[in-house]
Every structure is written in C-alpha cells, then in structure tokens.
Amino acid sequence: MIYVGVPIIQEQVNSHVTLPKGFKDIPKPIPYDELALLVSNANNPIRKALYLTLISSGMRIGETLELVKSDFDMGKDPARGHIHVRVTKIVIIPLNKNSEFDSV
Cα separation of 55 and 29, whole Å? Predict the structure, then answer.
C-alpha cells in the first residue's frame, strides 16, 4: 500500500493504530405519550414539578436538583430560571406558563 508516495506496511499500521470497537447507538427521545404517563403517575406534587422541569427545560438532573428559589426571576415575562453550570457558564431558560403537560 502506498499513501502520498510513501510505502505503508500493513503490519506496522495494525500495531500502531487502534480502531474503535464500535459506535454507540444514539438514544431515542421518549415518546410524548410515555412522558405524559410519567407525569400523570407522579405520586406527589414535588415529583411532578421535577418531571415537568426536566422535560420542559432540557436541564440535567443535577442542575435541576441544585435550583433554589433565588434562581428564579418571576418579574420577567416570561419568567426565567438561572441554571448555574459549574464549569463554564450560567444558562438562562425561559419558563413557559403554558406547558403542554398542564392538562396531564
């Protein structure tokens, strides 16, 4: 095998290059009906609020669990939540009063 005029010996390449074992499947989103079922079966209001926050904001569970009252600015329209990401930035998410899951 020759690459750009340089002879390549296959045995040398195999001993120095490690190929990936395979690709992981990309996770599929949870269907709407399953999310609605999860929210409707929440056994208390705090858990329901947690599920709705995770679903509607895209936050990670750790970010959601670290939220405190002072992270919310209810004086804005729409209201805003400030997510403090430890490493690099502060993310501001709009809080929609009319969630698709309000009727669940």
Answer: 11
Q: What are the two backbone dihedrals, phi and then psi, of residue 87, each rounded to the nearest 5 degrees?
A: -85, -50
Sequence spans of domains, the chain: 29-95
Q: What is the pTM of this model?
A: 0.55
- As a whole number of angstroms, the distance between CA 31 and CA 80 comes to 26
CA distance 24 to 8: 31
**104 pLDDT more than 60:** no
Q: How far is CA 91 from the centre of its chain?
A: 13
pLDDT (tens digit, 9 = 90+) per residue, 7-34? Answer: 777 777 777 777 777 777 888 888 999 9
The residues near 29 (Cβ < 8 Å, ≥ 6 apart) are none
